[in-house]
């Protein structure tokens, strides 16, 4: 075995190296996104978060999460969830028109921000979400992999990165798998990298909000003493605009 061979016991280092690259690569873009989010919060706007397939894991991470923003509305359709049908979920995100149908019910406004999570960034659903939001004057944050998009079929004629206001690149390699390094077949890294990007954004928001005197609407855990009481005002404020809080 050569000294540079990566074995299973080194997998944690491989992941940490990737996340370090993600943090360094996106430093400036994260600052830009934090400014967009702070502006939305100050305008009493909503962050809409959308994805398809396994990118819905990122949407779940943004919504009703202890320590997370209360002004988040998840945007999705049951057909996009693999647990409701794996093959049909793939077909749904490749179908033109579904994004427009979903956004029509979302209440999207120019003072909101739309986050679209899609590592491949080439299917109709994520691309049309971004295009539709841009047409309405709403800024779009595309959380994607530019490298993956470059090698994937351009089904929608453009990529998510090309039609987003700001791009957060999770640097996921084409195919998502990372192990073994020489011929990867397992250990997808997109969920880890995307969640890390979201949390990097959250810590920037905390710091920037403190500097500018903006109060962030943050959830408390419902499983700690006083959590329900702390969340009650947030529920009253956002529930009419975020029906998923019901």
Automatic annotation (TrEMBL):
GO terms for biological process: carbohydrate derivative metabolic process. GO terms for molecular function: carbohydrate derivative binding; isomerase activity. Transmembrane segments: none annotated. It comes from the Bacteria. PROSITE patterns: SIS (PS51464). Residues 33-211 form the SIS domain. The keyword Isomerase applies. Keywords: Isomerase. NCBIfam families: PRK02947.1. This is Uncharacterized protein, contains SIS (Sugar ISomerase) phosphosugar binding domain. It comes from Lentzea flaviverrucosa.
């Amino acid at each position: 075995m050569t000294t540079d061979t990566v074995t299973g016991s080194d997998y944690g280092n491989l992941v940490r190296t990737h996340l370090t690259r993600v943090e360094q690569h996106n430093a400036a873009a994260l600052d830009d996104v934090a400014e967009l989010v702070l502006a939305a919060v100050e305008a009493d706007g909503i962050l809409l978060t959308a994805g398809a397939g396994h990118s819905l894991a990122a949407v779940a991470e943004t919504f009703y999460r202890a320590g997370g923003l209360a002004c988040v509305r998840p945007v999705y359709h049951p057909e996009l969830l693999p647990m409701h049908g794996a093959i049909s979920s793939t077909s749904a995100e490749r179908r033109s028109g579904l994004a427009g149908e979903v956004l029509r019910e979302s209440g999207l406004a120019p003072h909101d921000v739309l986050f679209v999570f899609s590592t491949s960034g080439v299917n109709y659903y994520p691309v049309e979400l971004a295009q539709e939001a841009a047409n309405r004057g709403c800024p779009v944050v595309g959380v994607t992999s530019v490298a993956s998009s470059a090698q994937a079929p351009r089904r929608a004629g453009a990529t998510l990165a090309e039609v987003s206001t700001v791009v957060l690149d999770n640097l996921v390699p084409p195919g998502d798998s990372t192990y073994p390094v020489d011929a990867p077949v397992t250990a997808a890294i997109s969920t880890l990298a995307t969640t890390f990007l979201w949390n990097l954004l959250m810590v920037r928001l905390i710091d920037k909000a403190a500097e500018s005197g903006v109060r962030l609407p943050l959830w408390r855990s419902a499983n700690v003493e006083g959590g329900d009481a702390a969340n009650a005002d947030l529920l009253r404020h956002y529930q009419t605009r975020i029906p998923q809080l019901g």
